[in-house]
Amino acid sequence: MSMRSCFxxxxxxxxxxxxxxxxxxxxxxxxxxxxxTWDISIGPDGAGLPPGSGTAQQGEAVYIAKCLACHGEKxxxxxxxxxVGGRGTLAGDQTPIKTVGSFWxxxxxxxxxxxxxxxxxxxxxxxxxxxxxxxAYLLQLNGIIGEKDTMNAQTLAKVRMPNADGFVTFARGx
Length: 174
Fold this sequence. Notes:
Number of domains: 2
Largest sheet: 2 strands, antiparallel
Shape: globular
CATH superfamily of the largest domain: Cytochrome c-like domain
Radius of gyration: 19 Å
Helix content: 25-40%
Distance between the termini: 30 Å
Structural class: alpha+beta
Strand order of the largest sheet: 1-2
Order of helices and strands: EEHHEHHHHEH
CATH architecture of the largest domain: Orthogonal Bundle
């Protein structure tokens, strides 16, 4: 059987529809609802951003409640990863500090990551409004957007990140 007939339906569930029909105990057919819960990727262009919105002020409250324990006050990174600072450290001889403000090329993929992976012990538990708000807060702390800016599907896709030109564009077959 070719792996082309298989796909990852959810974490740890590989579905091989042809194999399920032919052999017992090799997987199961994933339902449309199950697939939809994992089919939430947001690309650099913002396609697929959900409805909702949030401001940095709203995001600060969510951050304090759900992010501060791992990322420290205002994203300084203690005890874990820093989210703020590091601009200008990617070039030269100094140790690079990879943060939202210094490394991430797209605000839309920041939204994608926060929505699917945070908070660490409760991934995918934030509402869309909470994710927009936390992303707005992180962007504001990094000086990328203003304190009163509202992030939503339209505005987030237009945010220009400081390291937007720091990556090579991938083109298939080239």
